[in-house]
Amino acid sequence: MEYCIRQINIVYDLVSKKRNESEFLKLFNNALALTKHLKETRNMSNPQLNYKILYYEILDNILLQITTRFQNTDKLIFLQLADVSKFKYYSTNFPVNAFQNLGESYSDIFVDNNKLKVELEVLYHDEKYQDLHHVYDLVKIFESSGLKVILPEVYKLFSLVLTIPSTSVSVERSFSCLKRIKTYLRNSISQNRLSSLAIISIEKELIDQLKHTGAFYDEVINIYTSKKNRSIDLQYKS
């Protein structure tokens, strides 16, 4: 997590340093040398000014997107608790800041902080978990060995870490899907129907996989016909 935050700050600083007259002229002259001529713009009387405005608009948009998308990274410091590469270090240096951050961000989920801390300390001191590569490997061990019952708070924490999306792309894609489904002509669609259609559209890859299973269509028909009596028989009744 610390590495990601550093990289975000590096990119932000790099783009910010490009936002000046000298950097624009350098880019403009290089582009002019490559193309040999300027593409027509709306203001041909001063095309350089036109491209300069566009240059600053693009940089400002990038900076705005970085700020907007990563403004809550300070709330994700608790992800360091699940950094398996640091378990050996954590065995002697418990990540207090990350633990406090978890309590601030998810106090409604992790009520017993003392129990969670004890479970984490037990896990950090166990050498057989210090050579893993990813928290996903640890979760698989928890599920196969029954450790999720012995260390339930830690299992809850790692499950949370694995379900947090790294970007907002999936969320934005879901909203785009809703725009396609709930059109002007479908503005009276019920909430349940809208949710069902959205799930089918969002999870279309999973639906395509299920279609190749033999029982898929039979299960769909059984569920559909069991809802209420239909005017026609959709099932053969002996």
TrEMBL record:
<dbReference type="InterPro" id="IPR008906">
    <property type="entry name" value="HATC_C_dom"/>
</dbReference>
<dbReference type="GO" id="GO:0046983">
    <property type="term" value="F:protein dimerization activity"/>
</dbReference>
<dbReference type="InterPro" id="IPR012337">
    <property type="entry name" value="RNaseH-like_sf"/>
</dbReference>
<dbReference type="Pfam" id="PF05699">
    <property type="entry name" value="Dimer_Tnp_hAT"/>
</dbReference>
<feature type="domain" description="HAT C-terminal dimerisation">
    <location>
        <begin position="151"/>
        <end position="206"/>
    </location>
</feature>
<protein>
    <submittedName>
        <fullName>Zinc finger MYM-type protein 1</fullName>
    </submittedName>
</protein>
